[in-house]
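User: quick one, fold this
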Amino acid sequence: MELVELTEQLVKALVENKDAVSVKEFETDEENTVLIQVMIDENDMGRVIGKSGKTANAIRTLVQASSYLKDNKRVKINIDRF
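Assistant:
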């Protein structure tokens, strides 16, 4: 499974407004690093970030583990709202 697809599935499982989820991959200047930008509805921000950022960190951990199994690239995930 692609990293973007995995991230999108994880985020959509948490939010109420699934149509407002946008996940895109960007190149970075750093070697072997992938940046994934997640855009969600403002009302779903708390659900995705979680208490003390625990949910967001769990998403990052799962996507990073998937990356290590395939490409062995470092993954950075930015979560923002519309």
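User: anything notable?
Assistant: The two ends are 26 Å apart (CA to CA).
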